[in-house]
Fold:
Amino acid sequence: MPQVPIIMPQLGESIAEARIVRLNISVGDSVVADQEIIEVETNKATMGVTTLCGGTVIEIRAEEGVDYPVGSLLGILEATEEEISRTGAPTMGEQPEPESSKEGEDENLHFRQTEQSYEEPKLVEPSVRGLPVPAGMKGAHYISPRMRARMDELGLREADISAIEGSGAGGRVTVEDLEQFLEYISDWPESSASPMRLAVADAMRRSWSRPLASVGLPVVLDPVLEHRSRQNPKPGLTLYVLRAFAIALAEQPATAGFLIGEKVVHPRAYDIGVAVQVEDGVVVPVLRNVDQHCVPELAEEYGQLVGQARDRKLTPEQAQGGIATVTNFGTFGLKWGTPIPLPNETLILGLAAGIKQPRWSEEVGAFVPVTETELCLTFDHRVVDGGGAGLLLQRIGALLQAPEKL
Structure:
């Protein structure tokens, strides 16, 4: 009978590998077309690998807890000729015409249905080892070719060696310094970094390559809290801030642009992400056209996206294309923070914890108790200056004083 491969599919535009979380099949099991047989974890979400056709599982080559590149052969099904014909599933020996590649695109990226094209399962080594780095007095800006080659062998980046005290000229870290450091920590406890942790580390390295700055503004939350108390169901506090952020950005589109060469590219839609804490990282689902929909209209979608994010069930499309992000670190009781925007975004707005404190009221001529938070805006200083960031924050604060208009 014909054999049909079970391969690691392309689960997103920027996803190169995925980790096997759970195998839902065993050798000898009968499956049907489009049945979810393997649960995998990427750096963005948990998703399922489904069958291309019905048949019997005759071989499983994947192991739980192991990372496999896109295109890896995870297992093999045996199917009837009739099922192959009905579903159009490729067999292990099939050789269709290769897809035509776009100009400038590596045609090796196209998956070819031949037995030789399926990669044997192999462990994907993390590029970040999570090495504990003690504080050092000096670092190095120049890395010799020999040192660079050794770092490539170990999967290390410049940030991983930046705190090692170098013995070379001008404090340069040498290969001998690196080997001595690795020997020093060789018996320290360690654990493998998850795909999520590695993705966050990579994103933050790329983000920090830009000149980032932060400004803050105290904002009274009482109008929002009072308005929220009258709603059923009650919208999340973050949603009010997200909505005010989108309106302010739409009014001041220059602040939402990003720099490409000598041009500032402005957004064509105000799609705003919200940072959701998950195990060992953060997931950012994106709400679309936030400036065009009021809080009640956004509430249901917002709740669904946050729930999916916490369950790691977001689709790639639901976590892409945002122009800015809102993060509510006040849920951890934090009064101040300087969040870092994603590499493809210029801005991130942080919301601190609400704190009851006195504020002078000119109307009553006395101090009155209010619930106050601190809004913190981190921005790419190449695109936005402190004045522009301050005006944007002031507008957000003003919008939050009239929540019925949000």
In short: Residues 211-405 form a domain with the Chloramphenicol Acetyltransferase fold (CATH 3.30.559.10).
